[in-house]
Design goal:
Layout lengths: L2 H22 L10 H57 L4 H18 L26 H15 L6 H28 L5 H21 L4 H24 L12 H10 L2
Helix pairs in contact: 1-6, 1-7, 2-3, 2-5, 2-6, 2-7, 2-8, 3-4, 3-8, 4-5
């Protein structure tokens, strides 16, 4: 379920349970509308509101922290690509094919991971990413291209100790790039537990059902409840969107990878 779908489901559900509360209220016996009963409902609502607000706050902080971690890891990944290419350049002209593959990989990764942005210029397979852009950096063809870089390095034959040290450094940096790529792939997947999100939605539904039971039947009360439902749905939207850093309107900036590609093309 996408970020917008999750927010819409929550919004519609909250309005629906509020409407149920408004509809049920006139049908209740008079003793259920006594002042003591209303006070009890308000106390329970206060408890649930506090608990739900705490959980939403923690989820927002966790999603933002996860988003920032992925953003920092992407910058580190871009720096690793630059350092790797620099070592290949220091080795000599024999690393030309490996460097060309690395440039193609970087350009294709940008094009497939940020399909809504302007793709990089240059000669690289435009369809190297996932066909539906659902896998982003996890595209098999992108992985094969990066694997081909390592295969090119292992075919090199050094001519002096200086080249041997450069090749050893390049192989270590290649392994670091591969590890960083898989770290980003794992971080791109949502970490929010769907059963937990469903349970939170249930709590919010109970709260809004109680609102419908005790709210006066006038336009201002209904508008206020509707605005509350919009606010809650928007909070869910932001949480789910931040938890998927490479999809949705809120995504990690492609600038580090584009800067890395500029360095690789020098």
């Amino acid at each position: 379920m996408s970020e917008i779908d999750s927010a819409l489901v929550v919004f519609v559900l909250l309005l629906a349970v509020t409407g149920i509360g408004v509809w049920v209220r006139p049908l209740l016996p008079e003793e259920h509308k006594a002042h003591e009963t209303v006070q009890l409902i308000q106390l329970v609502i206060g408890m649930l509101v506090t608990f739900a607000a705490l959980v939403l706050g923690l989820m927002t902080a966790s999603a933002k922290s996860s988003f920032d971690t992925s953003s920092n890891d992407l910058r580190t990944y871009a720096a690793d690509l630059i350092e790797f290419d620099t070592t290949l350049r220091e080795y000599g002209t024999d690393t030309g094919p490996a460097r060309q593959l690395l440039r193609q990989y970087t350009a294709a990764a940008i094009a497939s991971t940020w399909p809504a942005e302007t793709p990089p210029t240059g000669d690289y397979p435009k369809d190297i990413g996932s066909p539906d852009n659902s896998q982003k950096l996890e595209s098999v063809r992108l992985g094969d291209t990066l694997t081909a870089v390592g295969q090119e390095l292992r075919t090199l034959r050094t001519r002096d100790p200086l080249q041997q040290r450069a090749l050893d450094d390049a192989l270590k940096q290649y392994r670091r790039v591969v590890d960083a790529r898989w770290k980003l792939i794992e971080e791109a997947h949502s970490s929010i537990s769907r059963p937990f999100l469903t349970t939170l939605t249930f709590w919010l539904g109970v709260i809004f059902l109680s609102f419908g039971l005790i709210a006066p039947r006038n336009a201002l009360a209904l508008v206020t409840i509707s605005l509350g439902a919009v606010s809650i749905a928007s909070a869910i939207y932001v949480i789910v969107d931040l938890d998927t850093p490479f999809t949705g309107p809120i995504v990690i900036s492609s600038s580090p990878m584009r800067d890395a590609l500029d360095h690789l093309r020098r």
